C-alpha cells in the first residue's frame, strides 16, 4: 500500500504540467489581528498576552482535516497528541493544564466563533471543530485566559471563514494507509447585495486504525452563515452535527506488550469489545449590534444534545459497582450577553454568561461486549452563572493596561434513581464559587516591538465525569473533589523584525493549589483526587520568517518544568516528582519551498522529550523526533481548480509512543504512534458563475 501510494503521487502530480497554473497563495501576514483574549479585534502586539494565530494554510493545506493536532503542533506552550484512538479524542494541554485527561479535553477552553464547545463543568472535544471551514485558530495562554472562566488554563478558538466574496463549491478525497480515507463536499455563496455569506460542508472519515481493534467512522455536517441585518446588526449562525458509531477502543499497552507487538490491542480490549458510540448535535447564534457613541451589544445563544455509549474493559457486575457500560444522554445550552463601549482612551467590556448541562447517566454490566443488568441510574446537572468586567486603557501611545474580573458560580446536582438494599441513595450536590482576575501592562516602544508583564488568578472545577466515580471503589459520586486554583506570572517580548521575520519569547511561573490529578485508571475508567500544590515554570519561543516569495519557515520551542511541590496520598509522597503527561521540552520546525508558482514542498520536524506516565515517575515514554514531508501542486482546468498533494509522515520510521495514559492500571500506560505512513489527497473546486 505504501509503495503504491508514493508511486501514484509521483506519477500523478507532474502529469498536470506547468501550463495555466495559478499563483500559490502567499504566506500569511506575520502580524495578525486577534479576538481571543481581548474580545475585540486588536493587533497582537498591543495585548499583554502570549497569543498565537494558526492560519488557514496550516489547517487545510496538505492536511487530513480530522485532527486539530496537525495544526496546533506549531504553537509554543501547547502539546497536542494524536492518540490513534478516536474513542478517546486527542490529548491537548497548555502549559500542563489538561495533561491529566484520559479522554476529551480538560483545563483548556474550546470555542468556535465565540460559541462554547466546552460544557459548564469544563469538558470539551476537539472533534467538534469544523476544520474544513476554518479561517484561523487563535491560542491564548497565560493570565489573560482566566477571564474565560472555569477551566481556562488556556483557550483554543477556531474562527470560520465567513468573509463574503468567495462563492464556490467543490469536494475532495484523501487516501492513506490502514484502510484510511476521507471525503468531503463543501459549498458557499454570498447573500444578495453582498450582505452576508452562507456555507456548508459534509464529510466522512474511516480508518481501520494503526492498531488492532481501532476501527473508526466519523461523519460530520457543518453549516455556517453570517448576515447583515439592517444598518447596524450582524447575525452569525452555526450548526454542527457529528456521528461516530461503534468506534473501537484499543486501550493502552504495557511496556512488555509494546516491545512484543506495538500494533496489538491492550489487555481485555477484544474480550470486552471496548468501544464508544457518539452522536452530537449543536446549534448556536449570535447577534451583534452597533449602538450610538461607540457601543456594541452582542447576544449569543446555543444548545444541543450529545449521546454516548461506552464499553469499558471490565464487567462492573458487583452489586455496588457502576457497571462496565456507560450510557449518557445529555442536553446542554447557554446564553451570553456582552456590552462594549469605547470612551476616549478606554475600552470597557462587560458580560453575563449562563450555561447548563443535564445528563442521564446509566451503567450496565459489560457481558463480554453486550450490555447486561443495570448498575447505575442517575440524573446529573452542571450549570454556571458568570459576571465579568474587562477594561483596556491606552495610557499613552504604545502603552496599554488591561485588567479584568470574572465571578463564577458553578453547581453540580446528582439525583440517584438506582437505590437497592446494597446500594443506598447516592444523591448529592456540590457548589463552587470563584473570582478570577488579571492585570497586564503592554509597552510597544517602537513599531512592531512590544513587551508585557501580567499576572492572573483562575480556577478549575472537576468535571461531571471526574466526580462520577469514587477512588475507593465505593458507590456514589466523588463530591469531595475540590476545585484547583492557580496563579500565573508572565513576561514576554514580541518583535516584528526586518524582511518579514517575527519572533516572540515568553517566560512564566504558575503555582496551582489542589491540582486535580488521576488517582487510577482501570479499563478506560479514571478516578481523581486533589494534589496539594504543583508548580509550572517555563519558557516559550517562536520565530516565523518569510525569506523570499519562494521560502518561508517557522520554529516553536517550549521548556516546561512541571512538578508536584506538595503531594502525599496514603503512604506515598510524590513531592518533587514531575507531573505525568507533561514533556519538559517540545520543539517544532517547518520549512516550505515554492519552486514554481503552482508547486509547494514542506518539511516538518517535531521533537518531544521524555514523558512520565505515573505520579511516582517510575514509568515513562522516551523522547523522540519525527520528520514529515509533503508535496503539493495546483492546476486550473477552465473554471475548475485542482489541488493535489502527497505526504509521508514519520519519514524515518521512528518507533515512538505518541501519548501516555496517566496512572493507568496494570501499567497499560502507552499509546504507540504509527511508523512511516504515506497518503495522497485531491480536491476539486469551482467558483460560482
From TrEMBL:
Family of the protein in this entry: Belongs to the TonB-dependent receptor family.
Subcellular location: Cell outer membrane
Signal peptide (UniProt feature, chain positions): 1-17
Gene Ontology MF terms in the entry: siderophore uptake transmembrane transporter activity
Residue ranges of every copy of the TonB-dependent receptor-like beta-barrel domain listed in the record: 232-651
Residues of the TonB-dependent receptor plug domain: 45-155
Superkingdom of the organism of origin: Bacteria
The protein's name in its UniProt record: TonB-dependent siderophore receptor
UniProt entry keywords in alphabetical sequence: Cell outer membrane, Ion transport, Iron, Iron transport, Membrane, Receptor, Signal, TonB box, Transmembrane, Transmembrane beta strand, Transport
CDD domains the UniProt entry points to: ligand_gated_channel (cd01347)
Annotated InterPro entries: Beta-barrel_TonB, Beta-barrel_TonB_sf, Plug_dom, Plug_dom_sf, TonB-dep_rcpt-like
SUPFAM superfamilies according to UniProt: Porins (SSF56935)
Organism name: Caldimonas caldifontis
One Gene Ontology CC term in the entry: cell outer membrane
PROSITE patterns for this protein: TONB_DEPENDENT_REC_3
Bilayer disposition of the protein: Multi-pass membrane protein
